[in-house]
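TASK: fixed-backbone design
INPUT:
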């Protein structure tokens, strides 16, 4: 088996700060970077990663961080999982690329078989493999339009679907994703989401769905709509779980009106929310599902999986791409999927949820900035506001993330107003590491002394 540590000393199995953060080696890299990488490419943390294992990331100065971000919900099986590493090495030795559109190969087919088995619903399914989440969303729209012969696409307020031209149009937030990058693709219409913390009191999921349908009927007309594309839990928009009943009502409306329901499970998929796919929590079977991120344990792979009759509506040659379903990425996916299933990482996500909620929920009421603890499974967040109301407090979220990083814990922010601290730990994180990271986060939030890391 390939080791990730090579001949170097093994990674310390805990949080470890050898230098200030960022240390001298990271600062030197930041200087080199500034000369060749434009500022448009941001980084949440000023530390440069050298190697990682499970839920630990070591930087170039030898500091070891507890990872509560998983590279934005990607390395759910842990960074450089040994079985993924071995599968990648073996596949790379056999075949790095031929292009599935030129000379196809078995791992692509095997990933599509796994997706047919794992995604919600027992109908006949097909999958197309691509390389990024945005590409998956674009292809879902292409398929829905071709299958329905309609143009319009409905997307939710607070949605995030990517950075390509079509997916920028589908994404809600202007800064930083859209400002100055238009004109955007047409026939994309935004409809209201369900956002329990900020919706009027008593707004049930059914009523939130009726509000959406009303906007869609008036402004577009159901008979023009090809697809409703939505994240089962809003991701970049703030880890917003819709009110119960929202998704089932939308699914009924889509079915009754011949609208393709696309669940964008790029961030929620692959055990992250405590089920293999988040649509399962809603009891809904989407027509198409987009996946990426967690699918391949850190390698770039994404997919659209859906009803055979919709997927088969596209003419031969209408879907594809040079790198789509790269064999090394497919081998990584097959290894990662084996880990998700064999080690029941959906159950692990539910255990993480219980542990995190037990620590963080008591902060609501005790720490005035914490408006809500929410999420599903190991996709959890704190929405931070100015005390006494719901005015978003972006600066506090930035402070919390920076203070955690300085103490050796990687947490990310998100939210339409940038005021949400989100937790996306690898699903394999050890209890002791999770508890240690939560100790740091709680201390940062409450203003207590932050527990030190070994030096
Ligand atoms: N759909 C639901 O979460 C990616 C992107 C962060 P790509 N989210 C993280 C950033 O600032 O770029 C995402 C998502 C949902 C689609 C995407 C897009 O996936 O693989 O980044 O293209």
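OUTPUT:
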């Amino acid at each position: 088996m390939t080791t990730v540590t090579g001949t170097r000393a093994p990674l310390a199995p805990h949080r470890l700060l050898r230098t200030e953060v960022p240390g001298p080696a990271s600062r030197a890299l930041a200087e080199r970077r500034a000369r060749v990488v434009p500022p448009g490419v941001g980084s949440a943390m000023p530390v440069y990663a050298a190697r990682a294992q499970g839920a630990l990331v070591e930087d170039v100065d030898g500091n070891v961080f507890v990872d509560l971000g998983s590279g934005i919900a990607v390395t759910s099986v842990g960074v450089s999982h040994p079985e993924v590493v071995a599968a990648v090495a073996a596949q790379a030795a056999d075949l790095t690329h031929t292009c599935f559109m030129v000379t196809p190969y078995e791992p692509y087919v095997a990933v599509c078989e796994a997706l047919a088995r794992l995604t919600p619903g027992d109908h006949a399914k097909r999958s197309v493999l691509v390389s990024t989440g945005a590409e998956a969303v674009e292809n879902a729209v292409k398929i829905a339009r071709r299958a329905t012969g309609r143009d319009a696409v409905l997307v939710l307020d607070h949605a995030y679907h990517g950075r390509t031209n079509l997916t920028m149009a589908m994404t809600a937030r202007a800064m930083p994703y859209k400002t100055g990058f238009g004109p955007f693709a047409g026939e994309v219409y935004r409809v209201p989401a369900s956002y329990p913390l900020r919706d009027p009191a008593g707004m049930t999921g059914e009523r939130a769905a009726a509000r959406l349908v009303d906007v869609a009927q008036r402004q577009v007309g159901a008979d023009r709509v090809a697809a409703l594309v939505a994240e089962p839990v809003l991701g970049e928009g703030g880890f917003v779980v819709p009110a119960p009943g929202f998704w089932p009502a939308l699914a009924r409306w889509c079915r009754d009106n011949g609208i393709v329901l696309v669940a964008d499970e790029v961030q929620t998929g692959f055990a992250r929310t405590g089920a293999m796919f988040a649509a399962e929590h809603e009891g809904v079977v989407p027509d198409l599902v987009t996946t990426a991120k967690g699918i391949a344990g850190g390698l770039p792979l994404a997919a659209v999986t859906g009803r055979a009759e919709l997927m088969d509506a596209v003419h031969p040659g209408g879907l594809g791409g040079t790198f789509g379903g790269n064999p090394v990425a497919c081998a990584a996916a097959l290894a990662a999927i084996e880990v998700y299933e064999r080690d029941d990482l959906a159950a692990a996500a539910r255990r993480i949820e219980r542990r995190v909620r037990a620590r963080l929920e008591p902060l609501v009421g005790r720490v005035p900035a914490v408006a809500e603890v929410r999420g599903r499974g190991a996709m959890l967040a704190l929405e931070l506001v100015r005390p006494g109301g719901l005015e978003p407090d972006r600066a506090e979220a930035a402070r919390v993330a920076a203070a955690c990083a300085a103490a050796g814990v990687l947490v990310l922010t998100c939210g339409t107003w940038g005021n949400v601290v989100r937790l996306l730990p690898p699903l394999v994180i050890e209890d002791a590491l999770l508890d240690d990271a939560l100790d740091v986060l709680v201390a940062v939030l409450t203003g207590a002394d932050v527990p030190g890391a070994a030096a």
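COMMENT: The chain has two domains: 24-67+344-446, 84-342.
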